[in-house]
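Repro case for the chain-ordering regression, as requested:
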Amino acid sequence: MTRKRGQFRYFPLYTLAVVVAFLILFPAIFAVLTSFKPIREIFVYPPTMLPHTWTVKPYISVFSQEKYLHYFFNGYFISICSTFLCVILGSLAGYGLSRFKLPAKRTLMLAILAMQMFPGAVLMIPYFNLSRQLGLYNTYLALVMIDTVFALPLVIWLLKSYFDSIPVSIEEAALIDGCSQAKVLLLVVAPLARAGVIGTGMLAFIRAWNEFLFALILTKGPERAPITVGLAELFGQYSINWNGIMAITTLAVLPLLIVFIFVQRYVISGIMSGGVK
Amino acid sequence: MLEGYKDKFEWRGILFIAPAIIFLFLVVIYPLFKVFQYSFQEYSPHHSFVFAGLKQYQSLFSNELFWISIKNTFIFTIGTIVLDLALAWGIALLLNVKWPNLKARNFFRGALLLPFLFSAPASALLWGILYQPLGFLNNIIEQILGTPINFLGDTRYALFSVLWVSVWRNFPLIMILILGGLQSIPPNLYEAAGIDGANRIQRFWHITLPQMRSLMMTIIVIDFATTFIHFDLVWTMTKGGPLRSTYLISFFLYQRGMQAFKFGYASAIGVITALIISACVGAYIFIYSKRMEARA
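-- result from build under test --
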């Protein structure tokens, strides 16, 4: 009896949460539903929410266009490379900042924090010009480097605070037992830092996967451009095939969503700990 | 013992941080130096860069479009921050009340974080469909107001329509940061206040807000610096139109640099934008710390 009343007490809370979540996620829900509609249901007015007949044709048509396969592949390739680079450089720097006495460490930490909000778009002209001079225009390398550099300050900052939370005494014990410094890093520190690395790596991946401006100005055509560029050029072509466009959009977010569901708690705890500090 | 370990490997510490620092230096600091240099030059395809003194800055300040962009950018930025904070606070407080089931709360927390996963072009497409003249939103609006709204085609609504998409993408991260802040407030502060007979509103006003102050400053500064230079949504959704009503400073920079190939002029826009951001952030932090001192 009391149990039932206890549950009823939280009814307004759940209702409110469901309504808020529905309103916030409505565009995404609508997009997914639209992607399963046949073309004749796209132009009806008033617009409908649910498809009358469900179809996967829009998805098949995406995969039959070579252009989009390029965009998707480029997006994955650039983001994965950039994530690895970020995690490697970031763990090294984060570990160094956490464990060693360094000259001007405070200033360095503040500089890294300030870089986190660096307005990257200001560098549009030099990036464009330098990439042409160095032969990096329309290459993966240019985008990997730029994606890495803008995620790196956050990655360093978060990993530094993560390493801070791992007690030094564990490493010292291993060193006394005769482990080399390299072994300590690989066999003792790396496994302990796994959760932090996964969380920050995911953040770096999301940033790289969603980067648009530099992909736009440093690539030409679908040969090297990632999916964000492919999505942006669809805008304004609505009246042709919404369902196909929504299918591409869904496909562009789905992989991120699937990985995110598994690593959610690492990402959230990473953001939270970084914010509080 | 702890200090001993830290002293012993001091020189190795430099080796650990060097790759990242060198990388940041080459890919950010050097181009930053370049943008300063370009801004005092004139670019032409035949002569490359020639020194031009303050010419670019002079013509920039006398350009009406520059001032329009600045005005739009401030409206866009401040509007985004205000709505971001309102939405993020509201939802963070909802997630921070006592939930009977922690799994349910974590599910909602994850679900509400989803817009953060959408890239700007993807969000532009999602909202673009809803904003259509004969789209879903207009169907509702027509039933309420009688006339549809041309979200992206009307100079009165275009900037706000783009701004709303920016808020939709921005607020989840801020919500998580606020939630983290709320959860790190020591519960004994609330208990003590409860014993003293403080009600909910008093507790919020005298405990929650003061405890959250420095986090709020960080959030506002980061949100300001990133939104002020935001480019992706405007490029995708409106291209500065209709009638320049969504011309933001970043779009102006892109248009002059990447479409008109006026590299010197565009660099001057970049330098001025960076200076405006630094000045606003600096002034905000200065005023904030002065007020904190006055309080202490």
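Ordering looks correct now. The first helix of chain A runs from residue 2 to 9.
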